[in-house]
Amino acid sequence: MSENIFITDAELAGDDADEGPLAGRTVAVKDNISTEGVRTTCGSRMLEEYVPPYDATVVSRLKDAGATIVGKTNMDEFGMGTTTETSYFGSTDNPAAPGHVPGGSSGGSAAAVAAGEADLALGSDTGGSIRCPAAFCGVVGIKPTYGLVSRYGLVAYANSLEQIGPFGSTVEEAAELLDVIAGPDERDATTRQAPDSNASYAAAADGDVDGLSIGVPTELLEGADEGVVDTFWDALADLEEQGAEYHEVSLPSVEHAVEAYYVIAMSEASSNLARFDGVRYGNSGGYEGNWNDAFGRAREEGFGDEVKRRILLGTYALSAGYHDKYYKKAQDARAWVKQDFDQALSSADVLASPTMPVPPFELGESLDDPMQMYLADANTVPVNLADLPAVSVPAGETDGLPVGLQLIGPAFGEQQVIRAASALD
Amino acid sequence: MTAQTVQQGDLVTVIGLEVHVQLETNTKIFCGCPTEPTEEPNENVCPVCLGLPGALPVLNEAAVESAVKIGKAIDADIPEETRFHRKNYYYPDLPKNFQITQYDEPICQHGELEISVEGQRRSVTIERAHLEEDPGSLQHVGGGGGIDSAEYTLVNYNRAGVPLMEIVTAPDFRSPAEVRAFLAELEEVLEYLGVFDAGRDGSLRVDANLSMISAEEADEDGTIGLEALEAANRTEVKNISSHKGAEKALVYEETRQKNAIQRGRAIEQETRHWDESRGITVSMRSKEEEKDYRYFEEADLPPLRVAGWKAEIAIPELPSARRERFQAEYDLSDEAASKLTSTKQVADFYEDVALEYDPDLAATWVADELLGELNYRDMEITDVEGRLEDVHRLVELVAEDEITAKNAKEVVLREMLDDGSDPDAVVEAAGLGKTGEDEVQQAVVEAIEENPDAVADHEAGEGGAINFLVGQVMQKTGGSADPGDVNQLLRAELE
Ligand SMILES: [Zn+2]
C-alpha cells in the first residue's frame, strides 16, 4: 500500500460474521480506537507497542454487526493535526489527490475508503477530524451529536469535544455504519438516547430535500478559497433545483471559535495525556533514578512536537493566574457559539458551509506552520463547540482537488443532515 | 463555634483537619471492581481504575448515597447538583496522573459535628466534605526506603478508585485532645451510618494543619481572626492514621513549635511526616512551592442531580441523639449512656437486653461487666459479634436468679470469653446453679451450731460476726447461694 493508510493490518471479526447488518463488509478503524489484542498506537511512538486488553464499545458493536475489521489506520499523533502528517508512522498520501495530504486527523480512515481498502471506516472528530479528511479524500464522513456514540475505548484527546463517527463512499453507507455504532452505553456516562432512536439513519438517506430550509452562515464563507466557494455554491444550486431553499444566516460568535476550541482542546489534552508516563504501558525508556525525571524522559522521547506543543499550551491555559483569562473565557465563548447555532437553526432545518476553506494541502506544505493548520479548522470546530451533528459530503472539485460540503443540524438531528446530504450523493 | 480559650503561656494552638475516610461500598467509585482488600496485588483492577487509554469513569451512585448520609449527619448543605473536577498532578500511585475529585461544588458544605471534651460539649465547623477516588498504594523496596531513596518502588492499584470522602474542618481545634475527641466522634458517626469500617487498614487518613498564635489575637470567646491565622506559619502534618495517632502527632508538633518559638526561631511553613514508630514528625524537605493543581471540570461525568436525595435517604439515629434518648428512656447516667452508645453494635445490644430485662441490670451487664472484661482482654464488641446471644443468655440467667451475679461475672463470663464456652455449659460444669432453699437453710442451721462463739459475738452486738457466718454458709454451698438471702436467713434463725 503505497499510500501508508494502515499502521497495523488486522483481520478481526465477531463470532457471527455471516449475520448482522454489516455482514460481509470491511471496516477500517482509526488507530485511537481500542482493539483487544491489536496494538492501538494513536499514531504515536509513545504507544508503538501498546496492545489494549479490551475492545472499544464501537468495536464490539462492529463485531456484533458482522463486520470485519481490516486494519488500524494512520492518523495525526493523538488526533492533533489536520493532515495526518504528525503521525510517528509517516504521512499518508491522498488516494483522491496524489501528492496531497488526506486531511486529518482521521486521514488513514478516509483514505482507506477512498482507495477501496475498506468499504467503511471509523474515525473520530474533535474539531473536524472526520469531516476534514472526508472532504479532502472525496468521501462522506459524519460527526455525530456529542453523546450519540460511545467514546468508551477511544483514546481521549479532548474529551468534551470528540465523537467517533463513520466514513463511507455514500451517505447511505456511512449512515448504515452510524446505525450500528449509535446508542447509549453504560460505560460512557455522556451517552444519551436519541429522541427518535427507533428510526434508521440509513433510511433517512432518501435524497428528499423538497421544502428543506438551508441556512448559510456568511462568516463561514469569509476568507475561503475562491474555487472552494464556487464549488460550494454550485452544490447549493443543485440542492435548490431539488426543491430546497436557502438563506443567509449569521453566526457572529464563530470569529472566536478557533481560539476557544484550541484553548479547550489543549487544556483537556494536557490532562488526558498525563497518564502516558511509561509506568503501566507505552514507552518507558527504562530509566533509572528519580520517578519525576523518568516520567519526563519517557514523555520527551515518546511524544512528537505537535503533541508537546499542545500539552504545554494547555497546561499554561489551566494554570493559576491564567485559568480565567484563557480556559474560562474559552468556555464562555463556547456557550456563546452554542447560542448562535440554536438561533440560526431556529430559522433553518440545516446549515451549510464548505467543510474546509481550502482544498487539500500538498504533502509537507503546512507542517512548519501550525497557525495555517489551526486556521483551516475554522468551519469545523464551531460544530464541536456546539456538540452538534454534521456531515461532510463531496460537493465537486476545484482544480482537480476534492471539495466537501458541510451540513450541520440541531442536536440529535442526524436524520435531517443525512437526508440533506444524500441529495448530493 | 463556642470555643474555649486555652492559654498556653502566651500562645494558642490552632489546628484544622483534612480527614480522608474510605467509604464502604461494594464496588469502586468509577468502575465495577470490588473494594474488598485482597492479598494479591493488582487483582481488583480493570481498564478504568488502571487508567488505560480510552477507559471512562462511570459514577457509582452508592458512593454518592453514602456522601449524602454523611451530609445529613453533619447537618450540611447539599446542593441541587453535584459535579466532579480533575485535580492534575503527577505521582506514581495515580493511574491517570489526575485525580477525579470535587472542587467548587462539593456534595457537602457548611456542616458541623458536636464533640465532648472533658465533659464540655462544643461544635466543630465542617467547611466542606467531598467525594474523590483513592489513588493506588506504593511499596518502596530497598535503598533508603523512601520514594526518592528506595532501590525501586512497587505500585498496587487494588486501592485505586476506592471511594473517599475528604472532610475539611475549620481551624476550630485548640488542642490535640480536641482533635482526638473529634476524630473518635466522627468515626463513631460514620460507623453508625454504615458507610465506614474503622477496622480496614488505611480507612482513615488525616492531614492536620497546626500553628501557634499569640493569645492576644484571640477574642474573648477564643475566636481567632482570619488575618492572624494567615499571618502565622503553619505546618501540615501528614501520615496520621488514627485518632490516637493524631493526638500523639499533634502533641509532638505543638511542643516542637512552642520550643522553637521560645528559642526565638521562626516556624517554617512546611509539610511534615508523622513517623508513628519513632513518635516524631519529620520535615519532608520538599521545597514548598504553592501547588497548582489546574482544576477543571471532568467532562466524562455529567452533573448528577441530587436535589431530592437528602429527603429520600434515611439515616439511623446518631450517637448523640441516642445517648440523650438512653438517658431519658432508661434513666441512665450520662456516663453510662455514653459508654452504651460508643458503637452502634454496643447500643443495639444494650437495647436488645434492656427491653427484655431490667434496664439498670442491662446497663451494668453491658457497660460494666461485658465492656470491662472485653477491655481487659484488649477486645472489642466486634470480636464477640457471633457470641452476643450467649451473653444475652447469661444476663437472662442472672435476671431470673438462676445464678449469682458474682458467679456470672467472675466465672461464667470470663470462661465464655477465654474458652469460648457457652453459659449453660459453664454453669452446669461448675455446679453454679443456685442451691435449693432447703439446702441453704440446712447450711444456715449447721453454721450456727458449729460456731457458737460467732453466735455469741453477734448477740453481743458485734457487726462482723454475721459476715463471718454468711461466709461459712457460702462455703458450705460452694458459693452458689445468694449472700443477701443467706444474711436474711441467718438473722431469722438467730432471733
Ligand atoms: Zn476497576
Automatic annotation (TrEMBL), chain A:
Name of a matching Pfam family: Amidase
HAMAP family found in the cross-reference section: GatA (MF_00120)
InterPro entries: Amidase, Amidase_CS, Amidase_dom, AS_sf, GatA
One GO CC annotation: glutamyl-tRNA(Gln) amidotransferase complex
Protein name: Glutamyl-tRNA(Gln) amidotransferase subunit A
Catalytic residues (UniProt): 30, 105, 129
Reaction it catalyzes: L-glutamyl-tRNA(Gln) + L-glutamine + ATP + H2O = L-glutaminyl-tRNA(Gln) + L-glutamate + ADP + phosphate + H(+)
Record note on quaternary structure: Heterotrimer of A, B and C subunits.
Start and end residues of each Amidase domain: 13-417
Annotated GO biological process: translation
Family: Belongs to the amidase family. GatA subfamily.
Keyword tags: ATP-binding, Ligase, Nucleotide-binding, Protein biosynthesis
EC code: 6.3.5.7
Enzyme class: ligase
Function: Allows the formation of correctly charged Gln-tRNA(Gln) through the transamidation of misacylated Glu-tRNA(Gln) in organisms which lack glutaminyl-tRNA synthetase. The reaction takes place in the presence of glutamine and ATP through an activated gamma-phospho-Glu-tRNA(Gln).
GO terms, molecular function: ATP binding; glutaminyl-tRNA synthase (glutamine-hydrolyzing) activity
Species of provenance: Natronoglomus mannanivorans
Automatic annotation (TrEMBL), chain B:
Keyword terms of this UniProt record: ATP-binding, Ligase, Nucleotide-binding, Protein biosynthesis
Pfam family, one: GatB_N
Top-level taxon in the UniProt lineage: Archaea
Asn/Gln amidotransferase domain span: 348-494
Catalytic reactions of this protein: L-glutamyl-tRNA(Gln) + L-glutamine + ATP + H2O = L-glutaminyl-tRNA(Gln) + L-glutamate + ADP + phosphate + H(+); L-aspartyl-tRNA(Asn) + L-glutamine + ATP + H2O = L-asparaginyl-tRNA(Asn) + L-glutamate + ADP + phosphate + 2 H(+)
SUPFAM superfamilies referenced in this protein's UniProt entry, alphabetically: GatB/YqeY motif, Glutamine synthetase/guanido kinase
Enzyme Commission code: 6.3.5.-
HAMAP family named among the record's database cross-references: GatB
Similarity-based family: Belongs to the GatB/GatE family. GatB subfamily.
Protein role: Allows the formation of correctly charged Asn-tRNA(Asn) or Gln-tRNA(Gln) through the transamidation of misacylated Asp-tRNA(Asn) or Glu-tRNA(Gln) in organisms which lack either or both of asparaginyl-tRNA or glutaminyl-tRNA synthetases. The reaction takes place in the presence of glutamine and ATP through an activated phospho-Asp-tRNA(Asn) or phospho-Glu-tRNA(Gln).
Assembly behavior: Heterotrimer of A, B and C subunits.
PANTHER family the UniProt entry points to: GLUTAMYL-TRNA GLN AMIDOTRANSFERASE SUBUNIT B MITOCHONDRIAL AND PROKARYOTIC PET112-RELATED, GLUTAMYL-TRNA(GLN) AMIDOTRANSFERASE SUBUNIT B, MITOCHONDRIAL
Protein's recorded name: Aspartyl/glutamyl-tRNA(Asn/Gln) amidotransferase subunit B
